[in-house]
Amino acid sequence: QVQLVESGGGLVQAGGSLRLSCRVTGFNYGHFAIGWFRQSPGKDREGVSTISVRDGDTVYADSVKGRFTISKDSNKSPVTVYLQMNNLKPEDTAVYYCAGDLLPLPLGLKEGEYDYWGQGTRVTVSS
Q: Of 9, 67, 98, 112, which has the fewest Cβ atoms less than 10 A away?
């Protein structure tokens, strides 16, 4: 059974940094992708970044390019996927979720493509 557990959220001032972690266990596939999504109050959940566990391919939303970096510590299960967030802005405030699924390359950031989800971790950026 695939399980995802996020950690690392918190309160930070604008311009600061945070690193989120997502520990993923229970998958035995090749092209397993793990993505980060976020949801702000009153808004739809949006894709932030995703990474292929085996190949390391990455995708970023335009809103975070150059500020966020996704990485992983392994190319198989179990794996921890990190989201390093620098130069944070108040508009980055959201609950951040990691999600995973078996996906072909090239990867995408469509919420519906991911079946396995973590519980979320809250990030608040003060101005």
A: 112
| Residue among 7, 1, 34, 2 nearest 119 (CA) | 7
- pLDDT at residue 94 tops 70: yes
Length of the chain: 127
- φ, ψ of residue 90 to 5 degrees: the values are -55, -30
Q: Where are the beta strands (DSSP E) in the chain?
A: 3-7, 10-13, 18-25, 32-39, 46-52, 58-60, 68-72, 79-85, 94-102, 116-117, 121-126
Residue 57, CA atoms < 13 Å, CB-side half-sphere = 13
Q: Is 15 left (phi over 0), alpha (psi -120 to 50) or beta?
A: left
Answer yes or no: is pLDDT of 89 > 80: yes
Residue pointed to by tokens 């992708």 = 33
Please state, in angstroms and rounded to a whole number, the distance separating the CA atoms of residues 78 and 18. 23
pLDDT score for 76: 87
**CB 124 within 8 Å of CB 12:** yes
Q: What is the pLDDT of residues 47-66, one digit of tens each?
A: 999 999 999 999 999 999 99
